[in-house]
C-alpha cells in the first residue's frame, strides 16, 4: 500500500468528530490520521468540511467494524486522564467522576487505580459508580439486582472508595437503556449543574456507549446532540483517544417538572400502545438484553436520523475507493453560540483505562468481537465427574481432578464461544489439535497464530460445596467468561484451571449469580450437558398487561 501520509503538513487544530483526536495527515500510526490527499481536499473546502470529518480509524470502526492499530501505550492513557482531572475547577467546584464498570468483570481490575487518580491535588467532588451491562446477566433468583449492587459496593470498599467519596452506585445498561433515566434523574437531583462531569472506566466497560446514551437523553442540552457527533462505539480497547464532551442541561425546577410529567405519562403506556416502529425497536432490544429501558427526551422531539453514527456524506474518505457518487457540498455545521457555552458545565468522555493481564489484549479485533458478549448471556450447564475437562474456546480450561460426586459447571460467556467437554486423558490432544481451528474458534488462524499465542498455564483450586442449588464460587477465566461451580454440601473438589500465560485467573467468592445452575432445561441423554433455557426480558417504565 503506498504511503498516504505527508509529514510536511501541520496538524489541523480540529478534532475528529468520532474520537476527539486532532485530525492530521503526518503519521499513519498516530491518532487522528486522515490520508494526505483527502486531508488536503477537505482543507480546500473550508473549515466546516474539516469539522464534519472523521479520522481513518473511526471510519474503519463505523463502517467495517475493524480498528486500525495505534501506538497509544497505557502510560499515555494515564497521562491524558491525569492532566484532565488536574485542570483547575472552572466553577469553583471540582468535577464529579462517573466511573463506569462492567458488572460481569467484577472484581473490577481498574477500580483500585481510582484513589491514585484522585490524589490530593485533584479537586474532585466524589465518584458516582455506574455498574454497566446488567442486561447481559440472567436473573438467577428474585432480587438479583440488589445482590449485584452489594457486590459492586463491596468492590468499591475493597478499592478504598467509601464514605463521602462514593456518591452513589447505579446499575444500568448503556446499550438497552435500562436504568439510564434513573441515572439522569439522580445526576440532576444531586449534582444539578455544580461542575463538570468526567466519565471514567476500563476499556470495554461500555463507557463510550453510556456517553452516547446520555447525549440523547435529558442530561444533554437540547440542541447538543444535533451539533456534537456521537462518540465512536466499538469493542476494540482504547477507542476514545481524546476528551469528547457535551454540555449538561441546567435542571431548572420547570425542566425537572416537565421531565417528571413525561416519565409519568410514559409509565402509563403498555406495550400494545406503542407504535409499530417502537415495538420493533423494543423487540430488538429484548433480543439483546434481559433488562430493557427507553431513554427519551423531554425538550425536543427525537429525530430518528440521530440513530446513525456518522453521515456518510460527511466522511473524509472510503477505505477501498472513492465514493462513486460525488459528495454533496458540505453544509455549514451549526455551532453553539458564545452565550450557550460560556457558563456551560460539560460531560467529558475519557480514554478507556487499559486492563493489565487481560486476555482481550492478546486478541485480534475479530476475536474480541466473538469473546465480548453482545447479547443476553444464555447459561450453559454441564454435570462433570472427576477425570473430566471443560474447555471454553481455547482460552480457558477447567479440569475436575478429585471429588466423591459429580458437580455442576455453569458457563457464562459470549454465546458465540464454544464449550467442549472431554476426558482428562484426551484434553491435551484436543487442545493441540483444535486450538486455532474452527472447533474451538478463538484464537483463530491455525498453527501460525498458535505459535505466537501464549500457552495455557495452570492454577490449582480447592472448593467446598454448599449444596446442589447454590454455587460455591466462580472461576473467572480472565475476560473470556466464567464458570460457576455448584457441588453437594461439604463435598471437597480439587480443580485445575488454565488461562493463557500473562492473563488473570480469578476465583470469585461469593459467586456473582449463585443460583445460576437452576436456569437449565432437561439433561440431554448420553451427554454431560443440559438443554439451555433463556429467561424472559423485563422492560422498565412500561405498564405490563394482564398478569404480572
Tell me what you see in this structure.
Keywords: Coiled coil. The chain has 548 residues and is of the alpha/beta class. It folds into 3 domains: 1-70, no CATH class; 74-270 and 339-355, P-loop containing nucleotide triphosphate hydrolases (Rossmann fold); 369-427 and 456-535, no CATH class. It is 25% helix and 18% strand. It has 15 helices and 18 strands. The strands form 4 sheets. It has a 6-stranded mixed beta sheet, sandwiched between helices. Strands 8-11-15-14-17 form a 5-stranded antiparallel beta sheet, with no helix packed on it. Strands 12-9-10-16-13 form a 5-stranded antiparallel beta sheet. The chain is globular. The relative contact order is 0.12. Mean pLDDT is 81; it is low at 65-71, 232-240 and 301-334.
What is the strand and helix layout of this fold?
Blueprint: H1 36-44, H2 47-51, H3 56-64, H4 74-85, E1 96-102, H5 114-117, E2 126-132, H6 144-158, E3 166-171, H7 180-191, E4 197-201, H8 207-215, H9 224-227, E5 244-248, H10 253-267, H11 276-288, E6 291-292, H12 338-342, E7 345-349, H13 365-371, E8 380-384, E9 388-392, E10 396-402, E11 407-412, E12 419-423, H14 424-434, H15 446-452, E13 456-464, E14 471-477, E15 482-486, E16 492-500, E17 505-508, E18 538-539
Parallel strand pairs: 1-2, 1-4, 2-3, 4-7, 6-18
Antiparallel strand pairs: 5-7, 8-11, 9-10, 9-12, 10-16, 11-15, 13-16, 14-15, 14-17
Keywords: Coiled coil
Biased composition (Basic and acidic residues): 324-336
Organism: Tychaedon coryphoeus
Amino acid at each position: 500500500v503506498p504511503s498516504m501520509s505527508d509529514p510536511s503538513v501541520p496538524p489541523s487544530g480540529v478534532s475528529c468528530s468520532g474520537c476527539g483526536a486532532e485530525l492530521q495527515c503526518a503519521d499513519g500510526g498516530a491518532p487522528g490520521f486522515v490520508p494526505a490527499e483527502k486531508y488536503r481536499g477537505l482543507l480546500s473546502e473550508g473549515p466546516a468540511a474539516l469539522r464534519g470529518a472523521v479520522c481513518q480509524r473511526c471510519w474503519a470502526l463505523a463502517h467495517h467494524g475493524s480498528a486500525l492499530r495505534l501506538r497509544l501505550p497505557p502510560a499515555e492513557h494515564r497521562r491524558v486522564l491525569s492532566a484532565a482531572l488536574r485542570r483547575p475547577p472552572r466553577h469553583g467546584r471540582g468535577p464529579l467522576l462517573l466511573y463506569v464498570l462492567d458488572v460481569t468483570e467484577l472484581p473490577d481490575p481498574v477500580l483500585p487505580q481510582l484513589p491514585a487518580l484522585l490524589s490530593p491535588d485533584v479537586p474532585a467532588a466524589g465518584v458516582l459508580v455506574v455498574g454497566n451491562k446488567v442486561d447481559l446477566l440472567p436473573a438467577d433468583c428474585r432480587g438479583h439486582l440488589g445482590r449485584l449492587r452489594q457486590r459492586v459496593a463491596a468492590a468499591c470498599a475493597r478499592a478504598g472508595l467509601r464514605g463521602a467519596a462514593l456518591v452513589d452506585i447505579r446499575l444500568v445498561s448503556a446499550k438497552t437503556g435500562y436504568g439510564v433515566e434513573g441515572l439522569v434523574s439522580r445526576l440532576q437531583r444531586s449534582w444539578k449543574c455544580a461542575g463538570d462531569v468526567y466519565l471514567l472506566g476500563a476499556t470495554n466497560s461500555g463507557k463510550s456507549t453510556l456517553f452516547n446514551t446520555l447525549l440523547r437523553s435529558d442530561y444533554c442540552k437540547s440542541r447538543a446532540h444535533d451539533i456534537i457527533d456521537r462518540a465512536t462505539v466499538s469493542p476494540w480497547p482504547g477507542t476514545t483517544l481524546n476528551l469528547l464532551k457535551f454540555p449538561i442541561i441546567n435542571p431548572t425546577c420547570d425542566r425537572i417538572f416537565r421531565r417528571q410529567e413525561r416519565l409519568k405519562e410514559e409509565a402509563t403506556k403498555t406495550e400494545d400502545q406503542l407504535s409499530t416502529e417502537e415495538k420493533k425497536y423494543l423487540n430488538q432490544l429484548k433480543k439483546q438484553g434481559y433488562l430493557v429501558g427507553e431513554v427519551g427526551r423531554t425538550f425536543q422531539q427525537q429525530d430518528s436520523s440521530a440513530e446513525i453514527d456518522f453521515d456518510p456524506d460527511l466522511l473524509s474518505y472510503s477505505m477501498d475507493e472513492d465514493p462513486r457518487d460525488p459528495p454533496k457540498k458540505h453544509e455549514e455545521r451549526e455551532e453553539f453560540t458564545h452565550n450557550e457555552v460560556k457558563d456551560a458545565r460539560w460531560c467529558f468522555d475519557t480514554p478507556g483505562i487499559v486492563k493489565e493481564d487481560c486476555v482481550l489484549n492478546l486478541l485480534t479485533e475479530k476475536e474480541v468481537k466473538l469473546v465480548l458478549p453482545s447479547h443476553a448471556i444464555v447459561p450453559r450447564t454441564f454435570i462433570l465427574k472427576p477425570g473430566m475437562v471443560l474447555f471454553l474456546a481455547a482460552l480457558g480450561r477447567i479440569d475436575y481432578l478429585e471429588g466423591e460426586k459429580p458437580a455442576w459447571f455453569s458457563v457464562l460467556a459470549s454465546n458465540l464461544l464454544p464449550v467442549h467437554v472431554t476426558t482428562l486423558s484426551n484434553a491435551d490432544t484436543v487442545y493441540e489439535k483444535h486450538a486455532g481451528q474452527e472447533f474451538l474458534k478463538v484464537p483463530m488462524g491455525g498453527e501460525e497464530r498458535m505459535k505466537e499465542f501464549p500457552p495455557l498455564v495452570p492454577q490449582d483450586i480447592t472448593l467446598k460445596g454448599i449444596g446442589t442449588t447454590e454455587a460455591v464460587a466462580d472461576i473467572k477465566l480472565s475476560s473470556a467468561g466464567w464458570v460457576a461451580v455448584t457441588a453437594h454440601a461439604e463435598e471437597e473438589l480439587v480443580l485445575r484451571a488454565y488461562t493463557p500465560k500473562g492473563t488473570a485467573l480469578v476465583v470469585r467468592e461469593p459467586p456473582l449469580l449463585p443460583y445460576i445452575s437452576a436456569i437449565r432445561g432437561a439433561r440431554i441423554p448420553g451427554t454431560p450437558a443440559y438443554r439451555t433455557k433463556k429467561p424472559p426480558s423485563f422492560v422498565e417504565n412500561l405498564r405490563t398487561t394482564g398478569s404480572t
